[in-house]
Amino acid sequence: MVEPHKILLAFDFDHTIVDGNSDTWITGCLPDPLPATLKQNYIKGQWTNYMRKVLAYLDDSGVTVGKLKARLKEMQLVEGMAELLCWLAKEHNRFDVVLVSDSNSLFIDWILQRAGLQHVFGHIFTNPATIDACGHVLLKPYHSHSCSRCPVNLCKGQVLREKGYSLMRWIKEMVSEGSTNVSPHIVPWETGFEVLQFLQRITGTT
């Protein structure tokens, strides 16, 4: 649960922290694109099940864990994201920073370690992945849920509610108490620098 005096920042990973999709990035380990017969196995909302098949295909094609790790470490962060996350680490008394992603724990860990940013996030909620004794990547869904809008393996809204990060509950409580401090707005951004500037402005920091 977020501490009352802190600002909650919940990040996605793909196309937010990293400039691309970490799941599709690993197919670059292959000399040729994935076969159409494999791609046809994808069912909408069941991305993790599909990625299990992709990982099995990569393994059968001779792509080792070492090659996967090396490939993922080549991924670039979104411009300004390293600066933003480093600043948030310094301002840890002001912010509760969490990551909620449909990627997986191995891929996220490898990329954050390479960037030296693994210490920034207080919690990472994602699909668990491990390496078995034979060197195979084993991918599991984060949880099951009943939300029809989200992939079957992860509902980000439910994760935040279960962990006590309930924005709607806070807003309802503030409105019922007659508070005028509720001022929602959208902040368009393309780089981490824009997010950093916004956070510095609302907190009066540099």
Automatic annotation (TrEMBL):
<feature type="binding site">
    <location>
        <position position="14"/>
    </location>
    <ligand>
        <name>Mg(2+)</name>
    </ligand>
</feature>
<feature type="binding site">
    <location>
        <position position="102"/>
    </location>
    <ligand>
        <name>substrate</name>
    </ligand>
</feature>
<dbReference type="InterPro" id="IPR006384">
    <property type="entry name" value="HAD_hydro_PyrdxlP_Pase-like"/>
</dbReference>
<feature type="binding site">
    <location>
        <position position="23"/>
    </location>
    <ligand>
        <name>substrate</name>
    </ligand>
</feature>
<dbReference type="InterPro" id="IPR023214">
    <property type="entry name" value="HAD_sf"/>
</dbReference>
<keyword id="KW-0460">Magnesium</keyword>
<keyword id="KW-0479">Metal-binding</keyword>
<keyword id="KW-0378">Hydrolase</keyword>
<feature type="binding site">
    <location>
        <position position="12"/>
    </location>
    <ligand>
        <name>Mg(2+)</name>
    </ligand>
</feature>
<dbReference type="InterPro" id="IPR016965">
    <property type="entry name" value="Pase_PHOSPHO-typ"/>
</dbReference>
<feature type="active site" description="Nucleophile">
    <location>
        <position position="12"/>
    </location>
</feature>
<dbReference type="GO" id="GO:0046872">
    <property type="term" value="F:metal ion binding"/>
</dbReference>
<comment type="similarity">
    <text>Belongs to the HAD-like hydrolase superfamily. PHOSPHO family.</text>
</comment>
<dbReference type="Pfam" id="PF06888">
    <property type="entry name" value="Put_Phosphatase"/>
</dbReference>
<feature type="active site" description="Proton donor">
    <location>
        <position position="14"/>
    </location>
</feature>
<dbReference type="GO" id="GO:0016791">
    <property type="term" value="F:phosphatase activity"/>
</dbReference>
<dbReference type="InterPro" id="IPR036412">
    <property type="entry name" value="HAD-like_sf"/>
</dbReference>
<protein>
    <submittedName>
        <fullName>Phosphoethanolamine/phosphocholine phosphatase 1</fullName>
    </submittedName>
</protein>
